[in-house]
Amino acid sequence: MNTLSGPLPAAHRRFEALDSLRGVCAILVVMFHMPVASHWRDWGFIQHSYLFVDYFFVLSGFVIAHAYANRLQSGRDAGRFMVRRFGRIWPLHLLMLAAFIGLELARLVFHFDSAPPFTRDRSIEAIFTNLALIQAWHMHPYLTWNGPSWTLSAEWACYLIFAGLVLIAPKRFRWIGLVLAIIGGVLVLSYARRWMNTTYDFAVPRAVYGFFLGCLLQGLWTRIPRLKGGPATLLEIAAIVAACVFIGYAQGPITVAVTLIFVALIWVFAGEEGALSRVLDHPALVTLGRWSFAIYMVHMFILTVMMIVARKLDLVPVRRIDFGSVWLNDLFAVAMFGFIVAVAVVAHRLVEQPAQRMIDRWTKPRAA
Questions:
Q1: What's the rounded Cα separation, in Å, for the pair 24 and 28?
Q2: pLDDT digits (tens, 9 = 90+) for 162-218
Q3: In sequence order, which residues have a C-beta less than 8 Å from that of residue 315 and are 6 or more positions away?
Q4: CB distance 130 to 148 below 8 Å
Q5: How far does Cα 12 stand from its chain's mean position?
Q6: What DSSP state is assigned to residue 321?
Q7: Cβ(340)–Cβ(302) under 8 Å?
Q8: pLDDT value at position 228?
Q9: Does pTM top 0.70 for this prediction?
Q10: CA dihedral (93, 96, 98, 101) positive or negative
């Protein structure tokens, strides 16, 4: 955590180690999507890195409950909360949706490949569900437009449920949320065809499962004794190793347990008592965490354009870009990572941050 002159108010505390881990998770999700025949592409850990999305859900529930559980006392408060949350996620979502629509218009005009424009996952009707952030509410039989935005749609549902529960049952919303989390986990386990690798169909139950376990954790974490010093460092190491081993090998129904792994991980690192937390508190990693949303949002568009160009250059012998040398592939993948981060930084500074400041000004409570 930052060294401050006084204690930070509880509702405004930043969990910087958790923020840094979010940045690492965003990079791993990009690695999962990267269609390049690199050395690491077929590692089990990378093949299963889609599971790091569930860290986002648990962390979101944890920090949203921390910031807002005691602040939503009226319908006006809940409305302000929803506008703020919408303002945090929608501007970048809109930017990338516009980028994909622009790409589709270019396909329509220039016919640069054989894909029919504005069809299937790039349909006109899906534009409107994406604009409303309801595209992952079992509205379509596949991902649409900017695929990773399904998580925003699922989180938007969680925000709505959270605000309603806090207004209706402010003292018991976490326990009601626990019931919803259990229902969400059971639905994914019982009905999702690929269990935790579910997106457009069981996205909301998957998100509710993680989000409301995160809310429950936030209500309990300060009451659970935590280790300090050397034992805390050992616990942090154990938590990281356990998460990596689980994700590296988990397949099938057992993947549903990844949310519980992330609940434990967030509990361990929320207190920032060990040496690994101090490493994660490094400004470079904290900054990566603050860029993580932009990285997550822009990467699929860049990879899509990259694949279109690579196919034109006959660099996709099967389904991955391959220069004929795995070392060249590695260098290309690293370069693409760098380019994605650079574009994300621009989007963060020119779109995400200004939009957040504007929404915060609009929704700032007026002094009595």
A1: 6
A2: 999 999 998 999 999 999 999 999 999 999 999 999 999 999 999 999 999 999 999
A3: 321, 322, 323
A4: no
A5: 21
A6: B
A7: yes
A8: 84
A9: yes
A10: negative
